[in-house]
């Protein structure tokens, strides 16, 4: 089920997605981040069948991740450009890339994230935007949120699981020094 | 192509994956992070067809993300447990979750990441592990790495793109104060 011949076998994103499911839509987004915007660019770079590409592009447009807009009127031609929501997918791709480099690139990274000014390799790590603390488990965990329905509440823990013990050294307010 | 009826429609991860491709393998990993380890747990929680689940579990085991090990000998029964590489997929799921909450949860988050000690919601952000700097574009970018082959080099920029201008205030060595 892995059409490895159709994609760049060096790409750690592709390697990750070979392991976690289908990948065309994510790879189309990756191509958009690399500068592709026209049908034939996506088609050439990915080696994807035209009917499959058409369907995936339509879905990405319908889902608000790509915007279809004309770049030529005679003849009418369209390009596909990342929306704001599509742009926000970049951290997902970078995180997948880092995971792929970590586990599926024994020969070293074929692509990597670097500081644009210095070329120094960067290593993605998740932190909490509010406090800067590294997001590790079990210090942080996923719980049911305010919009959880009964099914979600039955599957995810809620916080607090028990009545919290009052702790005078911690208040519900964030420390004034915390970055917002 | 979206089998929305088979998955929790509130889950922002599922909502993201509805938009970026197939999702069974990632959802199996999500279930493993939630504590599932036995075939019937995955099957019940995901509503996935048994033959599809068997195939996906075999692939995840073959790819080194899950380990299959016996938990009972009479009768022989196996469970599926996250390997170290599988555990390292957690930041990917958390990043996908954050993206889903940001864009596909207009009613608010059904699940969210919180500080286990305080319950304060956390917002994932990517930073460079070495410097702590937020990983944003275009301050950081993806370039061909040391293991890049000709095809990868033809598709990704290299750094530096041009001969660098010597800058006495910056050296190739990291500042001694930088965290390793």
Automatic annotation (TrEMBL), chains A, B:
SUPFAM superfamilies recorded: Winged helix' DNA-binding domain (SSF46785)
Keywords: DNA-binding, Transcription, Transcription regulation
Annotated region (Disordered), positions in chain: 151-180
InterPro entries to which the protein is assigned, alphabetical: HTH_HxlR (IPR002577), WH-like_DNA-bd_sf (IPR036388), WH_DNA-bd_sf (IPR036390)
GO molecular function: DNA binding
Chain ranges of the HTH hxlR-type domain: 11-108
PROSITE patterns linked to this entry: HTH_HXLR
Entry superkingdom: Bacteria
A Pfam family matched in the record: HxlR
Name the UniProt record assigns to this protein: HxlR family transcriptional regulator
């Amino acid at each position: 089920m892995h059409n490895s011949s159709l994609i760049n076998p060096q790409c750690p994103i592709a390697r990750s997605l070979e392991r976690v499911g289908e990948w065309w839509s994510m790879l189309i987004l990756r191509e958009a981040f690399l500068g592709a915007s026209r049908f034939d660019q996506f088609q050439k770079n990915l080696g994807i069948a035209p009917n499959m590409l058409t369907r995936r592009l339509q879905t990405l447009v319908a889902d608000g991740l790509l915007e279809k807009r004309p770049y030529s009127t005679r003849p009418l031609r369209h390009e596909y450009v990342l929306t704001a929501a599509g742009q926000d997918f970049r951290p997902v791709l970078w995180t997948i890339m880092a995971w792929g480099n970590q586990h599926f690139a024994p020969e070293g990274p074929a692509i990597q994230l670097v500081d644009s000014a210095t070329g120094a390799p960067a290593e993605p790590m998740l932190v909490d935007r509010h406090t800067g603390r590294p997001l590790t488990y079990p210090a942080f965990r996923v719980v049911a949120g305010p919009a959880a329905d009964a099914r979600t509440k039955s599957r995810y823990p809620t916080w607090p699981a028990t009545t919290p013990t009052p702790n005078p050294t911690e208040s519900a307010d964030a420390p004034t020094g915390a970055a917002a």
